């Protein structure tokens, strides 16, 4: 009897852990070392007991709108002394993130299907989170969907309340208009420091979207924001009401990147033939 034929080695084109030529962080472990990272069903609204969830007390990092979880895995691998909770409204991308975190044995990660704003409002106690990450929030190109934009004065006030004093908000986008809006309103709540170079822990991109934007030679805007400690609850309420809502034109030309991201193609973008 012939021995079984060995499986062909994976290539970047077929390896599910390589996206746009960049490998997902972390090492896949033998199955008996996998973790369980899914919060399959959130409890009724109320502050979550993160110490009970993770079995220890550690700084908490929230990744809101985490997509397929690459940014969460990047942070969890680099910072095993931090616990990470990642959320997204799409179950399919949460399944990707959960599977990859499970395979890497990342006991410091949990994934949940829920919107970022809803998660903060319903499950996070004030003053308990060390860091909140918002990578590439959807700019929404249609006028009728503008109300869905995540980064608003009300949301920033909510983030500020959830963070520990002086806690960190990480912002990143490839949309120049969204970035201009962030630079206008965020400093009312946070000390904003632009991060002009690629992240040192992930120079090719912390997120799938960042990797794609860099490949397409588009600018990526990054900021590390520290919560201002001179604001009272009354100040947060006032700023949430007074500062402008994000009604900007998001530039539909950038929507093509959304299509490339959905397709997940590693093939270089082909240039259009010259017009005759």
Write out key terms for the chains shown:
276 residues, alpha/beta, two-stranded antiparallel ribbon
What does this structure look like?
The structure is a single chain. With 276 residues, the chain is an alpha/beta fold. Helix content is 30%, strand content 18%. The protein has helices spanning 50-54, 70-78, 91-103, 116-123, 153-162, 176-185, 208-215, 233-242, 255-263, and strands at residues 18-19, 22-23, 60-64, 83-88, 109-113, 129-135, 163-173, 190-194, 221-227. The protein has a seven-stranded mixed beta sheet, with helices on both faces. Helix 2 (70-78) links the parallel strand 3 and strand 4. Helix 5 (153-162) packs antiparallel against helix 8.
How would you write the strand order of the largest sheet? 5-4-3-6-7-9-8
Helix content: 25-40%
- Helix/strand-derived category reads alpha/beta
CA-based gyration radius: 20 Å
Largest sheet: 7 strands, mixed
Quaternary structure: single chain
Shape: globular
Number of strands: 9
Q: Residue ranges: pLDDT <50 for 5 or more in a row? A: 6-11, 265-276
Query: What series of H and E elements makes up the topology?
Result: EEHEHEHEHEHEHEHEHH
**N-C termini distance:** 63 Å
Mean pLDDT: 90
Content of β-strand: 15-25%
Number of helical segments with 4 or more residues: 9
């Amino acid at each position: 009897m012939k021995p079984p034929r060995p499986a062909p080695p994976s290539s970047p084109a077929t390896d599910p852990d390589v996206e746009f030529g960049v490998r997902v962080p972390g090492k896949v472990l033998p199955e008996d070392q996998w973790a369980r990272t899914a919060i399959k069903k959130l409890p009724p609204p109320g502050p979550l007991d993160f110490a009970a969830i993770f079995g220890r007390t550690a700084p908490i990092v929230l990744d809101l709108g985490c997509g397929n979880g690459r940014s969460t895995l990047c942070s969890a691998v680099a910072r095993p002394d931090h616990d990470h909770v990642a959320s997204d409204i799409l179950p399919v991308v949460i399944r990707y993130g959960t599977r990859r975190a499970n395979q890497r044995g990342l006991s410091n990660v949990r994934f949940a299907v829920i919107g970022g704003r809803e998660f903060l409002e319903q499950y996070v106690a004030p003053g308990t989170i060390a860091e909140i990450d918002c990578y590439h929030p959807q700019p929404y190109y249609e006028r009728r969907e503008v109300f869905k934009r995540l980064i608003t004065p009300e949301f920033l006030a909510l983030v500020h309340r959830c963070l520990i004093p002086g806690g960190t908000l990480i912002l990143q986008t490839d949309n120049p208009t969204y970035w201009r809006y962030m630079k206008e309103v965020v400093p009312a709540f946070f000390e904003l420091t632009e991060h002009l170079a690629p992240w040192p822990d992930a120079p090719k991109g912390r997120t799938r979207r960042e990797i794609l934007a860099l490949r397409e030679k588009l600018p990526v805007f990054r900021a590390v924001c520290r919560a201002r400690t001179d604001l009272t609850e009354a100040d947060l309420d006032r700023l949430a009401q007074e500062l402008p809502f994000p009604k900007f034109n998001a530039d539909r030309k950038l929507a093509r990147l959304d299509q490339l991201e959905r397709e997940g193609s590693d093939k270089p973008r082909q240039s259009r033939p010259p017009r005759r």
